[in-house]
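sorry for the late reply, my laptop died twice this morning and i had to redo everyting from scratch. anyway the thing you sent over, i finally got around to it. pasting the sequence first so we're on the same page, its 1409 residues, then the predicted structure underneath. double check i copied it right bc i was rushing
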Amino acid sequence: MSKATAEYVTARAADLKVKSTAAFDIAIGKNPDKVRAMLNLWFVPEFKPTFYDERDRYTQETSTASGLDDVGLLDPSYSLAAGDPGGQEVRYPVRMIDIDTKHLIDYPDIGPHGQYCILSHSWKGREVNYKYVLDSKFKAFNRALAASKVNKLGDKTSTSAARPNDIDTIKYQCQLDITEQEERIKTLVQESNVASELGLSNISNIVEELLSRRIDVQVVERGHDGKGGLQKAKNKLAEALSARDYDEMEGEVFKQFLEDIGVNEDSANEVINEDVGDGKLGQRARDVADAETALAGAKQKETQEIEKIQFFEHHGHIREAVEELIGCLQRSKSVVKIEQAIERSKEIFDKNPFPKTERRYLWIDSCCINRADDGEYAKSISAMGEWYKNAEFCLVHLDTPRDVPKDSLEDWRVLQSTVPPPQANITSYRDIAIHKPEWSTRAWTLQELVMSKTTFYVNSSWELLNRPVQFLGPWYHLCPFISLYTSMDTNNPYSSALKVGTLPSSLAEILDRNGIQHRLQDLDISVEAIGVAQKLIILLEKLDIRIPSDIDMDSARPRVTQSVYIGVSSLVRPSQGLGTNPDAKRLLDNILELLQPHLSSSRAYSLAERARYAINIVLTSLVNLIEAPVLDDRSYISQFGNVPKLGDWQKGLIRNRFSTHKVMSLVCGRDATVMTDKAYCLMGMLGVRFPTFHAEGLTKALSRLLDEVVISSNDVSVFNWTGKEYGSPIRGRSLYPSFPEAYKFGKDEKRKKEKDEKLINLLQIKRYEVMTDFLTISGMLTDTIMFVKERQQQNIPLIWVKEILRVIKRAQFEQFKPHITNIGKILKYIETAFDSKLMAAPKSARSPSPSSPGAQDSGVKQAATKQSDVANSPFASLSAQIKTPTLPKDMASFKAPKFGRKKTEAETAPQKAASRPSSSRGIGSFKAPSLKSFGRKESGTSQSSTMPSGIETPTTEPEIASLPSAPTTPSLISDVSRQSLDDQVLSYIASIKVGDKEAKGKDTGGSTTSEPQLPAELAKVLADIQIREFSRPHVKPEEIDTMISPNPIIVKNSGIEGLFDIQRVVISMAQPDKLRRQVKNAVSQRQKITGWCIISTGFARVMVSFSCPKGILEKQLDVVQAVETKVLKGKVQEESFDDSGDSTGDEPTKTNQGGAQAPGTAWHKAIMNKYNPSETVKKDENDIDAPDFEKARPEGARVSRMIGFVQESDLTQIAGEWVLARFAGVPGAKWFLCCLELGGSGRDFYGHRIASDEIDFHNASPEIGLMKYWEYYMMQKKYQLCSILQKLVESRDWGNRKTDIGQTLAKRVAKETGGSDQVDDSEEDSDDEDGEKQISDTLKDMGGMALTLAGAGLRQQFYEWRAERMQKNLAADVLKKFPPHIQTAMESLDDNKDLMPSMFHSAKKIHMF
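ok and here's the structure:
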């Protein structure tokens, strides 16, 4: 293509584009409908989808099985795969005791032919273990063998005797051991000749004497309860002293922190020593005093028993023999425990509706685990949770406290039959919570309780603590799952039968009517509902409805559906088992006969369908009977079992896979003989397994447990721990704690949290007071605004509103606080007393019409009392009426005046007399012109024709009489004169003293204004006025149950990798010099150093204590120093107070002679444009003085620098600092302190968690600068509300002026046109030129009045529009005056929201070491 061609094509294309654009513009302008149709054709799709309501699809009766057919039947292997991921080999214990034979059985047969239960108990000293069982059996065999040899040598014929069971063998061996040890002690006493040393002449009772002396020594060593003793008392005192000293150090740091944020010394002491006062000691001092008292008591006890202690020190062989005897006694008591547990288990199986099986077993951890086999022991520990889960029930032995020394002496005396057995510790089931058994404080018993299907309880004497719901047997556990199943049966045709209250009893009677025998027939049940429920259970069993006991919440509906399906199939199909149960068919027919009258559908159902519906009705009736008692019982168990936070467990829905944080918090405070058991005992509840190794220690065991939890579930609650002393020393596991106590607030942590809450309350008390006052004031003003805006009222005392506005605008919140209630009542009184509905006055009370006879006389008489109140009374008709005037109708009848004939003196006299009050001034203080003066010069001083606005126009008496009469005063003030009420209200408002000097004097202290007293008459009027009360709800953080991360978490040996939110913060160290000295004196880089730091997000700050290695702290101290220099103590820079760039000014505010601010500031402009932008602004008593914003400027600049610092967008620039981190995308994940490092590649980031107290921004205190901004913001909102109401009041004033001018003009025209036919004789001689001039002046005056009338209307509309606009954009207009980066924080403070970190880097990949 040639160059010319190319240019031509380009030119044509440009021309075509211009023409197309022009054509399109013309089309849009001329044919918008066509353009709209074309756009619809282009963009509106032809296909429109049809939407269906999913609820309608499921509620329609489209299924014959009421929706249950939608539940699929599970494969039989499902329960093995899903319910037992560990495999069959660890599903049941490997060794148990046969309840019927009392033999210890290896690999028992559990399943269709066997079932088992478990004993939950507390170990008390030496228990019978598996090794002792084997030894006892071996010794018994040897004794039998020796006996057989003796019989052979003696030629005696031995008779075959039955083999003794294992329990009897153990019991007999224990008796032999006690006897043997008793003889040994006596022999040692005789050989050592210690009887004289003990002062005993008779050694027949020497064993009991030595046992008693040894028990006294053990009391000295371990205390009466086994938890004290001399050494523990010393340790407790050392811990109390250390805690007291630490608190004193923390108190000094806290004082400095409070001083930095402007809290005075008295308030600081109140926060730090909140429990000190009235001669009471602080908590730490009380702990020290208690520890000293306990130590003194232990020393005194040691002094008393010094001889016994020295005796056993000198005779060690006797001490060992006595202690061995104590062990034998404990073992003997353990045998009794095993024997009684077997008897109670057998009783429970027999008397409750458990399935009948060939074999029944009991598992006891003390004797059924071979602890000598490390493999078996490790496997048993890891699988124990599953064993409890699969057991039919758990028998709980609520024994007396363990490790009590005197128990052994009591056991010896019972064995010797010198004393009776001790009384039972608990007599009834409901007394368990009162006694607070030690069983509920053990670590292992937590898993035993939670994982079990159901529990039965016995006291220390092995008496069953019966309760009605225990007789439900396995149905106690099945009830919640059956409830899930029956909730689907919404379209059952027999559902109306459930409304009959006697249906369960009628169903139960079917069992008795058919003479069905059952093993629960003679059982005495105290609760009738449970007795009926038992019969329904037997009825279901006879119908062959067998629900598996190993179901869970996920498999409940399909597995119950499957059980019902199988049962129905066996009933309706004889080939599948009907012949084996002849009673089942008869029972089903009776049930169908009972339910037939309630059949709600005419549809013909098959026998299988009717049988299934009928069985569902029986199941529903059973659930309705037992659901509430079962839930109440589970709630009571959670109370005394110390498991308060497991809500789904209390409902019976889940038994494992709980939130890690909740489980860890439950194990805190529970005791374990072996510390690693605190981690191992949680494997079942958390749904994990791993090999155990007790020598690894608790920290390593806890780390491996948490590794398995994170790998299997991605549960982020693992990382929600706190505590500076709980940081893990294991490399790569800084995200984990070292002890479970990190997941729960201990005594110290609770005190720290209480102190933080006390601090935040102290710091925010002014904020809440200001907010409450503002809400009250804004509520009052808003109600008044709506009242004035929406209603066209008359006779309203707007002068009260003006005076109240003047006070509110000028007053600080502290100054106005004592008057809020009274002012609120006055405004509410205005709203209620002058409501339009109350203002309707009877016609008899109104003034007569001007055209009626006597109207003129009535108006003149009333003028004498009304005219004196016109200028001052708030009830005045001119300045107080709120009425939109209309143009007078007689304006159109205006006629040109006639002149030329001179009136007679008689004709002129009456009119002169009527016009005597000519000294009255009109609007603008000029004399109103009259058409009567045409042809004659005025004798008085001529007045200007201008009418300045804002001056009220008094009227003459005839004019007052002709105006519409004001409505009568409502009955609320009938007993108080209007003028008296007016004087009292205005006097009270004037007594409220406000001013900048007073406000400044109260900045540092509280309000000193006493509660004002209203005048007696006014108080009586306002007594019954109810004002609105405002309250702010306390916002609590939402508790999250599950915290599963949607992002992958990779657990490696070197650390944990995941996606984290990173929040840059400003860190300030408390006592940095001391920390530097500790860093200098540290031995290695890994040595832990403890200190305090202040963490600030720019909006809020918290103070926490931390503990971190020397190497990490050393680097952070350098960062803190640099940040303090650059950010915290940087040069104060100018801030833009609004988006337009207007500077707030950095120099003192200057004032002119009138008191107004110097021009150029934002506040001066605001005041200049407040009422009349065109007029010169002068200091007015209603104007609010410009706030002293200079005090907020330095702190505001500091906050701005901090916000700019934390808003760093490049994460690499943050590396090397301490930051806040949390797992990304997980609600409920907590922030923690972390040292962020840059990886070697420049793109990877590494982190190391720093152990610290809880970082809780729900209790954080806002930054000082932000608070000053916010207080200023609230003042501006108050001022803006006052301005809105003032605009409305001014709009009503201009409307009143418009009404007055219109009425005056109408009267002038009516008067002149009505008297134009009568011509004054004195005016006949006036020349024509003067007459024309008078006409011209009069017309000018009337034209000026008309213009003023129009201007008043325009101003009225302008102020109404201005007030509406200000009200609509109230918060936005005020926020525009503040820096954009703090506007969100100001709104959060205004809404009482927490200042949570919000400027973080989201979902950054971090490798935590």
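The longest strand covers residues 1100-1109.
thats about all i looked at so far, will dig more tmrw
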